[in-house]
Write a structure and sequence with these properties.
This protein has about 140 residues and is an alpha+beta fold. The chain has a domain of about 70 residues: Endonuclease, Chain A, CATH 3.40.960.10. The protein has a four-stranded mixed sheet, with helices on both faces. Helix 3 links the parallel strand 3 and strand 4. Bound molecules: zinc ion.
Length: about 140
């Protein structure tokens, strides 16, 4: 079961046709097609996570590469105009992301960040979601 069903692939491709929310819609449709149910934009949690799987105590953030400074081609672009403004804003985003994720993990949530660029490869994204969502929800707290 390592390939997308035609339906899952269509769901993701269709989402990519939309504008701003395309990456998030892609993840939502994939997770839904895989049989997972989730809540959206939990306002009571740090960072208002995009997808919340309450019973599994798992959270998925879908981040735009530019705005959240992903370590990829899209995230390392520096706009030529207003460079300081943009880099400050994105720096703050990235910093806040880190703090939110830390707070959530401390509170017992497992957190996965899905980057915008990875939604262009729905096949491997699906495998990633599968691993994350089906994996054990209990986790030792050794690191940090
Ligand atoms: Zn990226």
């Amino acid at each position: 079961m390592d390939t997308l069903t035609a339906e899952q692939r269509r769901a993701c491709m269709r989402a990519v046709g939309d504008k701003d929310t395309a990456p998030e819609m892609c993840v939502r449709r994939l997770a839904h097609a895989m049989g997972f149910r989730y809540g959206l934009h939990a306002k009571n949690l740090p960072g208002k996570p995009d997808l919340v799987f309450v019973s599994r105590r798992k959270i998925i953030f879908v981040h735009g590469c530019f705005w959240h400074k992903h370590n990829c081609g899209h995230g390392s672009i520096s706009p030529v105009t207003n460079t300081d403004y943009w880099s400050g804003k994105r720096e703050r985003n990235a910093q806040r992301d880190k703090e939110n994720i830390k707070a959530l993990r401390k509170d017992g949530w497992k957190v996965l960040v899905v980057w915008e660029c990875s939604t262009r490869n729905p096949e491997s994204l699906r495998r990633k979601l599968e691993r994350f969502l089906r994996g054990a929800s209990v986790q030792g707290n050794k690191s940090n």
